[in-house]
Write a sequence for this structure.
C-alpha cells in the first residue's frame, strides 16, 4: 500500500500586547468574525483564540494570545513570549499614555522573545478621530526607529483589523518565523488547544481555555 504524503501545516503564535483598555480583545474578536462589543469585559491574565487561514498556497494555523494589560498581571505574559512568533503592540490613539508605555511593553518582549520575531505597531480606535492624542507622524516615527510596521485600526468600524493581523503573519512567513507540523488524526486537538505545538513537538493537551 502506498502511503499518501501528509499535508504540512505552519503554526504561528501571535501576541497582542499593550495597556488595558486599548482594544486588544475587540481587535481579536473582530478578526475572528465576532461582533464588536461596546462594553467588552477586561482581560485578566491571558486568553487565546485559534484560527486557520490561507496565505497564498500555505495553510497557516494561527494562535492569538490576548494579554491583560493591568499592572497586576504585567509579569504573567512574559513566560509566553519565548514561544511566540509575532507581536502586535497596541495603543489607543486617544490615550497618549498607552502609546508612551509601548516602549516598556517592547522591552518586556525583547528580553524574553526568540530571535527573528516580527512586530507591528497598532494605533487602535481610529473611529475616535476627534479625540486623537497621538499623531500619525509621531507613531510612524516610533515604528520606523524600532523597525516595526505601522497601521491604525478601528475595531468598532472594522478598519484595517484583518490587514493588521495578516501583515504580521505574512512577515512571519516571509522570514521563516513559524513552526511546522504534519496533519494527523488528532489535528483537531492541535488546533483547539493552546501550546500543543512548541518547536514542532506535541507537548501538552490543554483544553482548559488558558494560553500555554
Amino acid at each position: 500500500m502506498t502511503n499518501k504524503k501528509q499535508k504540512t501545516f505552519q503554526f504561528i503564535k501571535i501576541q497582542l500586547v499593550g495597556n488595558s483598555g486599548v482594544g486588544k480583545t475587540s481587535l481579536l474578536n473582530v478578526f475572528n468574525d465576532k461582533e464588536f462589543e461596546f462594553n467588552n469585559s477586561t482581560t485578566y491574565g491571558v486568553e487565546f483564540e485559534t484560527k486557520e487561514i490561507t496565505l497564498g498556497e500555505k495553510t497557516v494555523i494561527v494562535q492569538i494570545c490576548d494579554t491583560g494589560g493591568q499592572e497586576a498581571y504585567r509579569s504573567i505574559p512574559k513566560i509566553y513570549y519565548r514561544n511566540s512568533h509575532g507581536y502586535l503592540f497596541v495603543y489607543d490613539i486617544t490615550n497618549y499614555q498607552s502609546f508612551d508605555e509601548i516602549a516598556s511593553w517592547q522591552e518586556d518582549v525583547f528580553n524574553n522573545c526568540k530571535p527573528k520575531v516580527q512586530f507591528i505597531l497598532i494605533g487602535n480606535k481610529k473611529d475616535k478621530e476627534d479625540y486623537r492624542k497621538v499623531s500619525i507622524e509621531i507613531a510612524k516615527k516610533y515604528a520606523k526607529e524600532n523597525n516595526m510596521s505601522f497601521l491604525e485600526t478601528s475595531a468598532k468600524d472594522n478598519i484595517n483589523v484583518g490587514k493588521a493581523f495578516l501583515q504580521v503573519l505574512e512577515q512571519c512567513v516571509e522570514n521563516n518565523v513559524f513552526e511546522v507540523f504534519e496533519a494527523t488524526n488528532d489535528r483537531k486537538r492541535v488546533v483547539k488547544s493552546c501550546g500543543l505545538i512548541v518547536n514542532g513537538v506535541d507537548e501538552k493537551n490543554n483544553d482548559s481555555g488558558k494560553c500555554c
The CA atoms of residues 7 and 61 lie 13 Å apart. Residues 191-212 have pLDDT under 50 and may be disordered. The two ends are 39 Å apart (CA to CA). The helical segments are 24-31, 78-81, 96-100, 102-110, 136-145, 161-174, 187-192.
